[in-house]
What we know:
The chain is mostly helical. The protein has helices at about 5-25, 50-65, 70-85, 110-125, 130-145, 170-180, 185-205, 235-250, 255-270, 300-315, 320-335, 370-390, and strands at about 35, 40-45, 45-50, 95-100, 105, 165, 205, 210-215, 215-220, 230, 285, 300, 350, 355. The strands form six sheets. A three-stranded antiparallel β-sheet has the order 3-4-5. Strands 12-13-14 form a three-stranded antiparallel β-sheet. Strand 1 and strand 2 form a beta hairpin. It is globular.
Amino acid sequence: MNNYSEIYEEELMNNVIPFWMKHSKDEQDGGYFNCLDRAGNVFDTDKFMWLQAREVWTFATMYHEVEPKQEWLDMARHGADFLEKHGRDEEGNWYFALNKQGQPLVQPYNIFSDCFASMAFAALYKIDPQEKYAAIAKTTFFNILSRRDNPKGKYNKAFPGTRSLKNFALPMILSNLSLEMEHLLDKKVVDDLLREVIHEVMEVFYHPESGLILENVNLDGSFSDSFDGRLVNPGHIIEAMWFIMDLGTRLQDLALIEKATKIALRTLDYGWDKEYGGIFYFMDIKGHPVQQLEWDQKLWWVHLESLVCMAKGYALTGNQDCLQWFEKLHDYSWNRFRDPEHGEWFGYLNRKGEVLLPLKGGKWKCAFHVPRALLQISKMMDVAQHHNGQFAT
Length: 393
């Protein structure tokens, strides 16, 4: 019988990467088509900067970590050229969306466009060390750091001073981006940032009464009894916990890895739909109705990032609960999200686990979460298998 490491690697190489290679490249205007239907047909030609950058990262990483295939290097450069040419405003901030030809559609209100652009060019520099790639990555990264206390800047809709909250997403992504950028940065910059993001993620946003992590807290870190303050996003928490596990590995801090594992397991227990299976998208810490109408949908990235987290937790700590959850998540995800007929994975299921939208790419889904997760899981299952041989299926 195959082991999980081989299953996930085969899925990556034979089902997912070929789908994006075949369907997403815009040969005429550059960059990638983001919006692909079930079969890979383009249904909208707008290009979203954070998704363009994510695809650059994916193909650069495939070249660096899997195999130095020229076609993957060419694919990564193809997207990077489009980003370099069209992606930023005059101040160096990355737009949210462009049209097919590269003209701006949506202002640079979203700092995550910048985060993934920095990540993309840092990854590309590893395999194609052109100084311009390093310069774009570093300039963008330090721009992110300078904006982190007010990431939306002039595009912030909130009225200042009445209920000022800070959001979990940026420290979460910085806990990953800090390692993605490490080869380009001074050691002290990285070390200082690691301490800051670990404190933010594991203490400021941590809610001791529930053992969970909140999406938003008051500026002083206290609880806000409001829609935003009560919001829990199980997928965000669990993805963040595998980022923290990576930091714990980098710092050789087993206690940090074990704490992240404990929070992830608590979140899975809390976020799992006991009636239909799968992980809820949004929840309220007090059990009140949430404002997000899509709260009960089951999303691809939530389940894939949970699989990554459980694979890492088991490989790094040997915790049997991680193995049990991995197998539960594997059975749910492979039976519902995976599309054996046309390739890639569905993104959106309803609460009962039925396909809600048959798209393979859109405004929020691209060549990122699925391939990154498959690669991570394959590697971590290989580590776990060599540790204890318990991952044969």
